[in-house]
Inverse folding.
């Protein structure tokens, strides 16, 4: 897919002298806000694809980097679900106007649900791509062995292999903070339209996670799109085209 040089990001001040890097496209509402996954940034294929699509359709769009990731300041090791949700709410409050569609990828799918609970009057619809609420507990902590748990407690972090064979850092503070923000153990009082896209060959986040989300949401308008040959990233051309259609369909519902 053709790429173009990135313009310098805008900066949103945050407490402690930190700044969030973001890129904003003006247009009509409902706007679209993209929420990245764990250790991802706003330069990824899904974020840039949606920006191009929103430019073509005249819709407002925002993508940004959480504190400690991408072009934002801060240390990744300080990051938690709570902190990154606060970043998301700050972007919503300061950088958008009117109703918004949140598109959350992987961990961003957890954060989009938390943001929808915190700003129900602002969130018109949600689109999850391999959404991963509660992943710190269900997909990390519950799978750690005794040695890894001891290392996490002693050092404050451990490194785990990801689906690409690389290692990723996991901190004790991430696990403990996530434990206070679990969503799938009870009904989720989100009432807006929601579409959940999930690849059935996703080895990082099982597609059944989206089924659990759908079951717990109070909204009556929840759709699941299972992609039989889809992986976790869902960034192939056909996956990106599907995501564009999902955003357009959600926008039609709430315009």
């Amino acid at each position: 897919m053709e790429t173009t040089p990135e313009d310098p990001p805008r900066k949103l001040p945050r407490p402690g002298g930190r700044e969030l890097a973001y890129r904003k496209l003006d247009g009509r509402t409902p706007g679209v806000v993209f929420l990245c996954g764990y250790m991802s940034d706003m330069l990824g294929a899904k974020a840039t694809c949606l920006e191009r699509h929103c430019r073509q359709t005249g819709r407002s769009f925002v993508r940004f980097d959480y504190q400690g990731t991408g072009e934002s300041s801060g240390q990744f090791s300080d990051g938690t679900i709570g902190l990154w949700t606060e970043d998301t709410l700050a972007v919503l409050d300061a950088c958008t106007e009117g109703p918004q569609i949140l598109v959350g990828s992987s961990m961003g799918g957890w954060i989009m649900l938390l943001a929808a609970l915190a700003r129900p009057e602002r969130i018109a619809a949600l689109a999850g791509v391999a959404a991963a609420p509660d992943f710190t507990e269900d997909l990390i902590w519950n799978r750690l062995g005794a040695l890894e748990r001891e290392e996490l407690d002693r050092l404050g972090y451990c490194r785990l292999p990801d689906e690409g064979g690389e290692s990723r850092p996991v901190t004790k503070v991430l696990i403990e903070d996530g434990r206070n923000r679990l969503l799938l153990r009870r009904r989720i009082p989100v009432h807006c339209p929601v579409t959940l896209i999930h690849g059935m060959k996703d080895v990082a986040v099982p597609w059944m996670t989206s089924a659990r989300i759908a079951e717990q949401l109070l909204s009556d308008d929840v759709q699941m799109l299972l992609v039989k040959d889809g992986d976790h990233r869902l960034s192939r051309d056909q996956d990106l085209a599907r995501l564009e259609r999902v955003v357009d369909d959600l926008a039609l519902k709430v315009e």
Notes: Residues 237-254 form the longest helix (18 residues). The two ends are 30 Å apart (CA to CA). The first strand starts at residue 10 and ends at 14.
